[in-house]
């Protein structure tokens, strides 16, 4: 059993295929063949048309990193807050509703402790911290300044403004980062 759990937690395709049917509200069958290479790579630029599975893949990438990279930080950023909410809220729901995942989050008065304003912040009991920040039209891109995560995700990268991308570059961990950019 321990060997199976280790494989599921460490292999991105096995992780998606194990957790997908349990967590997704829409039907989830399996990881499609064209999603395997990006799922198994570290840093990646993932481009694909609508319906390709980029967003679903991103959410599973984030969830897997939350569980398997203790004492590290991750940052999910997007141009608009709506894109950020569409990715962060399901992850929060998974930690709240799935009994195994619920073991990873601290509780306040019986509820999981999550901050949503001015940026998302999810702190897990294994020491992982996930930040979520939209840059919007803020010329200072203030929401992404401060954290220096080891893992960075960018949603709808094709819309990300240049001034914010420049600030994003400085929001890197000194030892290096795993970067994953998603867009069409």
Account of the 3D structure:
With 184 residues, the protein is of the alpha/beta class. It has a single domain, classed as P-loop containing nucleotide triphosphate hydrolases (Rossmann fold), CATH 3.40.50. The protein is built from seven helices and nine strands, in the order H-H-H-E-H-E-H-H-E-E-E-E-E-E-H-E. The strands form two sheets. A seven-stranded mixed sheet has the order 1-9-8-2-7-6-5, with helices on one face. Strands 3-4 form a two-stranded antiparallel ribbon. A hairpin with a 4-residue loop joins strand 5 and strand 6 (120-123). The longest helix is centred in the middle third of the chain and has 17 residues, at 81-97. It is globular. The model has no long low-confidence stretch (mean pLDDT 84). It comes from marine sediment metagenome. This is Phage terminase large subunit N-terminal domain-containing protein.
Task: List low-confidence stretches.
Answer: none
Biggest sheet, strands in spatial order? 1-9-8-2-7-6-5
CATH superfamily: P-loop containing nucleotide triphosphate hydrolases
Number of strands: 9
Structural class: alpha/beta
Q: Give the distance, in angstroms, between the N- and C-terminal Cα atoms.
A: 39 Å
* Beta-strand fraction estimate: 15-25%
**Residues in helices, as a percent range:** 40-55%
Organism: marine sediment metagenome
Protein name: Phage terminase large subunit N-terminal domain-containing protein
InterPro entries: P-loop_NTPase (IPR027417)
